[in-house]
Design goal:
Layout: E1 5-7, E2 13-15, H1 37-75, H2 83-112, H3 125-161, H4 167-191, H5 193-198, E3 201-205, E4 212-216, H6 228-270, H7 275-314, H8 318-323, H9 327-339, H10 341-348, H11 350-365, E5 371-372, E6 375-376, H12 377-385, H13 391-404
Helix pairs in contact: 1-2, 1-9, 2-3, 2-4, 3-4, 3-6, 3-7, 6-7, 7-9, 7-10, 7-13, 10-11
Main location: membrane
GO cellular component, one term: plasma membrane
Pfam family, one: 7TM_GPCR_Srw
Length: about 400
């Protein structure tokens, strides 16, 4: 993940950024004798898992690419357009980019060539140039994903605080969300410019047969002679791409849970809600719970990484003994996180499920449009868009807008 190490012929170490996953480049044989028992166990676990990692990650990526394309196609339907769904669509786009890049990477550096080996074919200039492209691309797309998740929490929270009724206000919010999404994409690329610059290829030779291979420049993390620029880069990355977004997600995620709980309580007290209306309210809260689940998944994936990065910069030899062996595991956890959103949306959002079935199943088998409460999807949309402001309608509309957010 953020950095993995390559131990070259001369014993020099090379630092790579996020999703470099190059335990492919880790020489497990160079463990120091004074390494702790935990360190040795971690390395033996890492070595064992590395032999499966390529195949597992390719399976996860193929599943993730297909399901994220489903996500994009469903969430961009005209009747599905809401600020939250715009964010979820672009989250799916960045996840697809990450996984498309990961497939050839895993195939070459894990499946075709053993993960601990070095050879002229494996470390050729073309493949190592691809690796640098892969590291830079996935660092960017992953930073985009985590900040989109922060944006998701903020937008949903603001919507629950002040729900929109008018179509004009809703369109304004959609446009504002689109601008924020664009800012996230551009800002992520700008923040990571120091990372792009820190990755460069160096020539090396194999000691056995003097064949030329290419390796990444040594950044010496966790050593006494680490460059100041590298340390600044590491701290910046840890805070801007991991710790600050995790903190913001925690704050807004908590506010989201608190607010939905309070609002539901108030409505149940104040209004005489019919069975159908309370059902709508529970669906409305289920949508928020679904988004909270997306946020929690990101926190579980990203927060430990942020902590490990900080430890790598502060604690001597922590990077070598703890961070590197966990690299592949952090990769696969992040890939699974990218791939499971479709399952979450389907299981927790009636609206998403209906649209997906209508888009992919009905068109094949000429099945009637899915109905709910006696209305087809389009009928319901038209009906819900023309609400008056009496209490029951307000709830119905309020539910519609939330339920629309996937």
């Amino acid at each position: 993940m953020i950095w993995q190490t390559y131990v070259g012929g001369g014993g020099s170490r090379c630092l790579q950024w996020w999703f470099s996953a190059a335990n492919a480049y880790c020489e497990y044989t160079t463990m120091r004798e004074n390494q702790t028992v935990m360190g040795k166990e971690l390395f033996s676990f890492a070595k064992g898992y590395a032999s499966f990692h390529g195949y597992v990650s390719i399976c996860v990526c193929v599943f993730g690419i297909v399901t994220n394309i489903f996500n994009i196609s469903v969430l961009t339907r005209r009747h599905m357009r809401t600020p939250v769904n715009q964010i979820l669509s672009w989250l799916a786009v960045s996840d697809v980019c990450t996984m498309i890049s990961y497939v050839p990477f895993a195939f070459h550096f894990y499946c075709i060539h053993p993960s601990g080996s070095k050879s002229a074919a494996k470390n050729s200039k073309a493949w190592m140039t691809f690796m640098i492209f892969h590291i830079n691309l996935t660092a960017t797309t992953h930073t985009v994903s985590i900040w989109l998740c922060v944006l998701l929490a903020i937008v949903r929270f603001l919507h629950i605080r002040s729900p929109t009724k008018a179509n004009s206000a809703r369109l304004k919010r959609i446009n504002q969300s689109n601008i924020m999404i664009l800012i996230v994409y551009i800002a992520s690329a700008i923040i990571l410019i120091p990372n792009y610059m820190s990755n460069e290829l160096l020539q090396d030779t194999l000691p056995d047969n003097n064949e030329t291979i290419y390796v990444l420049r040594d950044l010496k993390l966790g050593k006494n002679d680490t460059e100041i620029l590298v340390l600044v880069n590491v701290w910046m990355y840890a805070f801007t791409a991991k710790l600050i977004p995790c903190l913001l997600m925690s704050i807004f995620g908590s506010l989201l849970i608190y607010n939905i709980h309070v609002k539901l309580k108030q409505r149940r007290k104040v209004l005489q809600i019919s069975g159908a209306s309370s059902l709508r309210l529970s669906e409305h809260s289920r949508t928020t719970k679904m988004l909270v689940a997306v946020i929690v998944l990101f926190l579980v994936t990203e927060l430990p990484q942020g902590v490990l990065i900080v430890c790598s910069a502060c604690v001597e030899s922590f990077f070598d003994t703890v961070y590197i062996p966990l690299g592949d595991v952090m990769d696969i956890v992040a890939l699974v996180n990218n791939a499971v959103n479709f399952i979450l949306y389907c299981s927790m959002s009636t609206k998403f499920r209906e649209t997906f079935v209508h888009l992919y199943c009905c068109s094949c088998h000429h099945v009637r449009k899915p109905r709910e409460n006696g209305y087809t999807l389009t009928d319901r949309m038209a009906k819900l868009d023309s609400h008056s402001s009496n209490n029951n309608d307000h709830i119905h509309h309020h539910h519609h807008h939330h339920h629309n957010n996937v």
